[in-house]
Design a protein that fits this description.
- By secondary structure, the protein is an all-alpha fold.
- It is elongated.
- It has one domain.
- Helices cover about 80% and strands about 0% of the residues.
- It has two helices and no strands.
């Protein structure tokens, strides 16, 4: 039905979309928490999300080009 390449592309795209949606949800939650507790430390989750997204984009490009 679907080739392994197609399944891989779908998995990468779903992962990237899920990461982006989770990142936006996390930003809203942190903003809400900061209104109550402004002394909260800066989370590193944004940096980790960017690094994982870059890896996902590289995997997506590599799969498409291949």
């Amino acid at each position: 039905m679907f080739s392994p390449r197609t399944i891989g592309l779908i998995n990468i795209i779903i992962g990237l979309v899920g990461l982006i949606l989770a990142h936006f949800q996390e930003r809203r939650a942190v903003k809400s928490l900061r209104e109550r507790c402004p002394e909260l430390p800066v989370p590193i989750s944004g940096l980790i999300a960017v690094l994982i997204a870059l890896l996902g984009v590289l995997a997506l490009v590599g799969t498409i080009v291949r």
